[in-house]
UniProtKB/TrEMBL annotation:
Organism annotation: Rhizobium hainanense
Protein name stated in the entry: Phosphatidate cytidylyltransferase
Highest classification ranks of the organism: Bacteria, Pseudomonadati, Pseudomonadota, Alphaproteobacteria, Hyphomicrobiales
Transmembrane segments: 7-29, 49-82, 94-113, 119-140, 147-172, 184-204, 225-243, 249-272
GO cellular component: plasma membrane
Pfam families xrefs: CTP_transf_1 (PF01148)
GO MF annotation terms: nucleotidyltransferase activity
C-alpha cells in the first residue's frame, strides 16, 4: 500500500509538472502571438490547459478519497454524460418512463453492483437486463412511431455513458497477484495514456498534418497526427510500466491497443455529432465541449483495457 501511495505521488507530481510547463508555454505564446485573443489556436490551447487543471484536481481528490471517491466521481460522470447524450437523441413523451429508469434505476444499480464487486451480474446487467426491459417499459406507453429508433438510441446512451464508462472504476475490482492495493494506478495509466494520445494527435496534426483521415467526420484528424500521436502515447505507456503489473513491452502493447480504441471511439462519437448537426456534445468544460467530448476515447478503450488485464492474469 505504501509503494502504491509513493508511485501515485510521483505520478501526480509528474502530471502537475507537465501542466505547469504547459501553462507557462501557453502564457508566453498568448503574450507574444495573441495578446488580444485573436489567435484561435492559442486561445483554444490555453482553454484546454485550464480545463485540464480542473480535471486533474478533481481526479486527484477522488484518488485521495479512495475507492468510494473514484466510484462516485465516475457515477457522476456517467450521469452528466447520459444527460448530454439524451439531449441529442430522438425522444418523445412516451419515452419518459424509460429515460427515468435509465437515470434512476439502471445507472445507480450498475454502480452499486460495481461497489459490491458482483462482476457476474455487473457485466450483463445493462447489456442483457436493461436491453430487454427498456423497450418493455417504453412500449407500455403505446406510442409506436419511430419506436425502434427511439429505444435503440436510449440503449446506446446507456451502453456508452454508463456501461462502458463504469469499466474505468471497475479496474479497482481486479485481483492481481502481487499488485494488491495498487489498482488505482491502472486507472491513472488508462486515463493518462488515452488522453495524452488525443493531445499528441492534435499536436502532431498541427505540426505535420496534411492527409485527412475522415474529413467528413473530424476535419482536424490527419494520418500524420494519428500515427505520431499513437506511437508517442504507446512509448509513454511503455515508459509508465512501473505503475502497472506489466513489463515495458507489455505496457507498450496495451497502450497501443487502448490508443487505437480511443481514436476510433472518437471517430464514432464524431459521426453521431455530425448526424445530429452539432460540433460538441455540450458546453460543460471550457475548451473541451461537453463531458462526452472528453470521455469518448476513454469509454471505448476502458472495457477493452479492463478485460485484457482481467483475462491476462486469470489465464496466466
Amino acid at each position: 500500500m505504501e509503494a502504491a501511495s509513493a508511485d501515485l505521488i510521483h505520478l501526480v507530481l509528474g502530471i502537475f509538472g507537465v501542466l505547469i510547463i504547459a501553462s507557462i508555454i501557453g502564457y508566453v505564446l498568448q503574450q507574444r502571438l495573441s495578446p488580444d485573443g485573436s489567435n484561435a489556436a492559442i486561445e483554444n490551447l490555453n482553454a484546454r490547459i485550464k480545463a485540464w487543471w480542473v480535471m486533474v484536481v478533481l481526479i486527484g481528490i477522488a484518488f485521495i478519497a479512495g475507492r468510494a471517491g473514484v466510484i462516485l466521481l465516475f457515477a457522476f460522470c456517467s450521469f452528466a454524460a447520459l444527460r448530454e447524450f439524451v439531449t441529442l437523441i430522438n425522444t418523445k413523451r412516451a419515452d419518459h418512463w424509460a429515460l427515468a429508469a435509465a437515470f434512476f434505476v439502471a445507472l445507480p444499480v450498475q454502480y452499486y453492483l460495481l461497489w459490491a464487486e458482483q462482476y457476474g451480474i455487473y457485466s450483463i446487467f445493462i447489456p442483457v437486463y436493461a436491453f430487454l426491459f427498456m423497450p418493455i417499459i417504453a412500449v407500455l406507453r403505446g406510442d409506436t412511431e419511430r419506436f425502434l429508433v427511439r429505444i435503440a438510441e436510449v440503449q446506446w446512451a446507456l451502453m456508452i455513458c454508463v456501461f462502458c464508462a463504469s469499466h474505468v472504476p471497475a479496474l479497482l475490482t481486479l485481483h492481481i497477484p502481487g499488485y494488491e492495493g495498487r489498482n488505482v494506478l491502472l486507472i491513472a495509466f488508462l486515463v493518462i495514456v488515452v488522453q495524452l494520445s488525443d493531445v499528441l494527435q492534435y499536436v502532431w496534426g498541427k505540426l505535420f498534418g496534411k492527409t485527412k483521415i475522415a474529413p467528413r467526420l473530424s476535419p482536424s484528424k490527419t494520418v500524420e497526427g494519428f500515427v505520431g500521436g499513437v506511437i508517442s502515447a504507446s512509448l509513454i505507456g511503455a515508459a509508465l510500466w512501473w505503475v502497472t503489473p506489466f513489463t515495458p513491452l507489455q505496457a507498450g502493447l496495451l497502450a497501443f491497443v487502448i490508443t487505437l480504441m480511443g481514436f476510433f471511439g472518437g471517430l464514432v462519437m464524431s459521426a453521431i455529432k455530425r448526424d445530429r448537426g452539432v460540433k460538441d456534445w455540450g458546453h460543460l468544460i471550457e475548451g473541451h465541449g461537453g463531458l462526452i467530448d472528453r470521455l469518448d476515447s476513454v469509454v471505448f478503450s476502458a472495457p477493452i483495457f479492463f478485460h485484457l488485464v482481467r483475462y491476462w492474469w486469470s489465464l496466466s
